[in-house]
Amino acid sequence: MKSTPPSFVLFAALAGVLVSAPSANAYSPIIRSYHSVRAAGMGDVRYTTGVFDENFFGNPARLARNPNDLFQLPTISVEAGSSTLNTVSSLTKNGGGDGLSKFADAVGEPISASVQMVFPAYYNKEFLASFWSFAVGMEVRAQTIAEVGESALIDPTTIVNAGPVVSIARKLLPNNALTVGVNAHGEMRASSGSMFSVLDFLKGTDVDQVVKGGSAVGYDFDFGVSFRPHWTLGGFSYEVDGAVNNILGGKYDNIKKNLISGWDKQAPIGASRSYNVGVSASRTDLPMFTNLTLAVEMTDIGNNPDGSLFRNLHIGAEGVARIMTFRAGINQGYWTAGFGLDLRFFELNVASYGEELGLNAGVQEDRRYAAEFGFKI
């Protein structure tokens, strides 16, 4: 009688584990070309509160609201989901029954991580004339968001984007109550392709060949406005802001398609056109904080296909106490918290936030931890 090959037993057992595993939730991450650790700690509000590099991919009108001129040396941020290390560990343990049971625990769990750098960047609050502001910078970001499905498929969303950004803003009305601004992005973009099976992963198949997707080079624009009314309420000063990001659609393939030889001849995963509005309130006369800011925003409208509006809701607060900053908020229904340390030539920000990977708030939280450090003069 012919013996059953061990590899067949392994794959059969794996299939049984996957079939009996609970169903994974709908997987639909929101893709962004940039993410701020500072904003993440305060509910991911950024269109009414953003400063410096946060406005390169947010509201360019707030370029005129920067507190000072700045030359930005390397600013690096890293993020990882709380389940990422455990999931990756489970996927790499492919031997024996214990390995299979650990693999079953990974079904439906997100794998998320990113690294980002802004360098160099220069911000001039009064460029040529007092009513103009100007900035230019270079950003590189690599991010991956993946999930192991119950059908033995790994669904990767991996994107690398890099390129320069040029921003200009114009102050209008008395006391610069109104500002308008424009960002121009030039970007090289590459992204993963189709899903690959767990069996390929366990057999050691050259996965990097399987997931090669699209690549291209292109450009796009953002337009933003910022308005500060003259009145106050409850001792707070207010600001109402709005912006449209990726006006041309965020495909970044209008200069050259199929940039990388040997990759699929398809467009890379884009960052869709999005509409964003919000209001913030601030006070500078409190005993505990030299500045307290509260904000409510609806963002990524249009960049959240088929998703609930609750995924677009962000609420945040930030209190500045000399060199220390404390942050808290709600991002897509999940709590956020963060801390910042701002020295003369060095800045550090850390944050924890929840990101919704399903189509509706409360479906599947990816709890992430992020840190950013940068140098400036």
Task: Describe the overall structure.
The structure is a single chain. The protein has 377 residues and is mainly beta. 13% of the residues lie in helices and 48% in strands. It has 6 helices and 17 strands. The chain has helices at residues 6-20, 37-41, 84-92, 96-106, 198-203, 207-210, and strands spanning 70-81, 110-124, 132-148, 153-172, 178-192, 196-197, 212-227, 232-233, 236-245, 256-257, 274-283, 291-301, 313-321, 324-331, 334-342, 346-356, 365-376. A hairpin with a 2-residue loop joins strand 14 and strand 15. Helix 1 runs parallel beside helix 4 and helix 3 (84-92) packs antiparallel against helix 4. The longest helix is centred in the first third of the chain and has 15 residues, at 6-20. The relative contact order is 0.18.
Topology readout:
Elements: H1 6-20, H2 37-41, E1 70-81, H3 84-92, H4 96-106, E2 110-124, E3 132-148, E4 153-172, E5 178-192, E6 196-197, H5 198-203, H6 207-210, E7 212-227, E8 232-233, E9 236-245, E10 256-257, E11 274-283, E12 291-301, E13 313-321, E14 324-331, E15 334-342, E16 346-356, E17 365-376
Antiparallel strand pairs: 1-2, 1-17, 2-3, 3-4, 4-5, 4-6, 5-7, 7-9, 7-10, 8-9, 9-11, 11-12, 12-13, 13-14, 14-15, 15-16, 16-17
Helix pairs in contact: 1-4, 3-4
